Structures are given as C-alpha cells and as structure tokens.
Amino acid sequence: MKPRHKRLALIGGIVGAVGVAAALVLNAFQSNLVFFYSPSQVAAKEAPLGRTFRIGGLVKEGSVRRDGTMVQFAVTDTAQTVAVHYQGILPDLFKEGKGVVAQGQMRDDGVFVAREVLAKHDENYMPPEAGEALKRAAQTNEKIGHSVIGGQR
Predict the structure, then answer these.
(1) Residue 104 in contact with residue 116, Cβ under 8 Å?
(2) What is the pLDDT tens value at each position of the chain, 153 positions in all?
(3) Domain that holds residue 25
C-alpha cells in the first residue's frame, strides 16, 4: 500500500470514528431531553403522548387527594387544568395554590402520571417556565374576556 493510500485510510477511519461518536452523543442527548409544557399547551394536545416532559403551574385548590403514597392533584395555569397522579412522597413545600413542576408522561385518558414532583423553595420562587405559562394564560384570559374565579371557568 502506498503512503498516500495509508493516509487516506487513516483519515477515513478517524472521520468514521468521529461520526459514530457524534451520533452516539446526539442520541443520548435526544433521549434525555425533557421539554416543559403548561396545562394550556397540554389541553391543546401540544404535549407528546408516551414521551417524558414537564408540566408546571399552580396546584389547584381543593384538588389534592391522598391514599397512602398515591397522590392525585390538579395543575392549573388559571386557563386550563390537568389531572396528575403521583406515587411517592411529595416535597414538604408541596401545597395547594403554590407552584409545582411535575415530570412524567401523559396517558391516553388525559391524566399526567408523574415520576418526579418539584415544589417551590421559598415565597418568591416559581420555576421560570411556570411563571411564563401563568402570564401567557392570564393574557389569553384578558383577551378573551373570560373571568377566572378560584381557578375555575
């Protein structure tokens, strides 16, 4: 084999190895990518079925039901509400009317099954995505002219 062919084979091998490594990294990144959706986006069917994502907003007043470690509650952005089921121990700061972000998957029946629930950590904190979703929902309600009382339409 000529030196020129050896060099081309070496360069081709390096390019191939870098391509395989890049494909593996991008695949791992895609598998671990988790998007945030508001309850209004979930109600509009923008959230993926069978894929993990985060939903955030406020825990609807009067919606928390506990049965041992199984908890059912509703997350609202004041425009729409999504039912959430969670099996596990909730954070100490989880309360009705307070901000929450849940990570999990949407079932076909419209119930979000959470694998992780995160609550705010002080009086002024709300996850940025949840805050933006609440602002957008409030603006939409103002434009439409609907009045929202106690999180219900």
Answers:
(1) yes
(2) 788 888 999 999 999 999 999 988 888 776 677 788 999 998 888 888 888 899 988 999 999 999 988 999 999 988 899 999 999 998 888 888 888 999 999 988 889 999 999 986 655 556 677 677 777 777 776 766 544 444 443
(3) 1-33
Tell me, yes or no, whether 88 and 116 share the same domain. yes
Residue 129: how many CB atoms within 10 A of its CB?
Answer: 17
State how many domains the chain has: 2
Contacts with 128 (C-beta within 8 Å, 6 or more apart), sequence order: none
Residue 68 lies in a domain: yes
Question: Burial, 21: exposed, middle or buried (Cβ in 10 Å; 0-12, 13-18, 19+)?
Answer: exposed
Tally of CB atoms within 10 A around 77: 28
Q: Are residues 69 and 103 in the same domain?
A: yes
My answer on whether 93 and 133 are in the same domain is yes
Write the CA distances from 119 to 18, 23, 101, 122, integer angstroms: 41, 36, 7, 9
Roughly how many angstroms between the first and final C-alpha of the chain, as a whole number? 78
Residue 152 lies in a domain: no
Query: Cα–Cα distance between 60 and 57 in angstroms, integer?
Result: 9
